[in-house]
Amino acid sequence: MRMRNIGIVGAAMCALVQPAFAKTIAVAPGDGAQARLQEALIAAEPGDVVELGAGRFSLTDGLSLDVNNVTVKGMGAKLSILDFSGQQGAGEGLLVTSDDVVLRDFGVENSKGDGIKSKGADRIVYFQLRVEWTGGPKETNGAYGIYPVESKDVLIDSVIVRGASDAGIYVGQSRNIIVRESIASENVAGIEIENSFDADVHDNIATHNTGGILVFDLPNLPQMGGHNVRIFDNIIVDNMTPNFAPKGNIVANVPTGTGVMVMANRNVEIFDNVLGENGTSNIMVVGYRFPHNDPKYDPLPRDVVIWDNQHGRAGWDPKFRGGKEIAAAMGGSFPAIFWDGAGGPTKAPIVSDTVSALSLGLTDILADPATASPVPLAVSTTRPAALPAIKLPDSMEAVVR
């Protein structure tokens, strides 16, 4: 476990591509900060740096950036603070819709909607940021903290997110993704990779969430068939915060006490993580067990590999229908690893971890969990060929060195 730079520190930076004519546009907090900061984001040209001074920017509306190759840089995640406590609308704190953007070294607090969202923004870097709802877990908090969607080449590095009512760090419908060395705490989902291809999630801490790390694929979205996701070298412990997602959200179904949850994805590797103190289970692999009308959607998980993880206590308080009864039948504790049985034996995960691991035998994707007939999952000694590591453009990695 490397955990290279979990701390939040200010640092000198360079944009992905820095033209000779690039300039720095400095914005200080104080009177008129809303207009001055948005004006700077509009006036910025490719290669420019919008520099946030130290202090608290009291904002009444969301901000937006749609210029390519711009850096927004503060003095530190606890020093330059975009405070949306007085936000009048319900939108994002900051919305980015352009490519080659670097966001670094500032904090976002109490946005009415998502903290920082980027849409269709390729080669985007989130570095040394803090997104927080300072009142703690509440249903009225914004849904997502860090929220890139529909993008290619995404780097999320050394961020802290707390209090999101859906997911603290969420990457959706994207491709070629790294989430590393970050902390997600007191969210419903700590980190979520959804309907995405080719992602590495490593060296993070996910704790005090409802669920630590989720890998989901959902129907009726432009990009489906999530695959090639590696979850490794993370600390995923004590995810016991009661679920506070608004009713109707898919994550409202995540049981309190979930470590890692894989739903309807393929080619997922979970290895070399530290897991424990998750009251439902440390790792669960399940199908999408809700009605849908999308003929192109495959609700089954498949080709999931669980290897060489370290397990602490799990399963003493399972929070899903039928869980307590299954636990009672097993002597009072639910297994550290379980598969719901979706798709039958050919879809079973490959497991090497020497802890309690069960199939619930629910081969029918719409079966009631209360009808489960648990059987042990076999322990494997042969690991399939590993997925390749994700490689981002060198220009993105240079920003965070």
Please specify the SSE layout and strand pairing.
Elements: E1 24-27, H1 33-43, E2 49-52, E3 55-58, E4 63-65, E5 71-73, E6 80-83, E7 94-96, E8 102-104, E9 107-109, E10 116-119, E11 124-127, E12 130-132, E13 144-149, E14 152-157, E15 160-162, E16 167-172, E17 175-180, E18 183-185, E19 189-194, E20 197-202, E21 205-207, E22 211-216, E23 227-232, E24 235-237, E25 258-263, E26 266-271, E27 274-276, E28 281-286, E29 302-307, E30 310-311, H2 323-329, E31 337-339, E32 350-351, E33 357-359, E34 375-376, H3 394-399
Parallel strand pairs: 1-2, 2-5, 3-6, 4-7, 5-8, 6-9, 7-10, 8-11, 9-12, 10-13, 11-14, 12-15, 13-16, 14-17, 15-18, 16-19, 17-20, 18-21, 19-22, 20-23, 21-24, 22-25, 23-26, 24-27, 25-28, 26-29, 27-30, 28-31, 29-32, 31-33
Antiparallel strand pairs: 33-34
Compute the number of helices.
Answer: 3
> N- to C-terminal separation?
18 Å
Please, what is the average pLDDT?
Answer: 93
Query: In one word, what is the shape?
Result: elongated
The neighbouring-strand order within the major sheet is 1-2-5-8-11-14-17-20-23-26-29-32
Structural class: mainly beta
Total beta strand runs:
34
Low-confidence stretches: 5-15
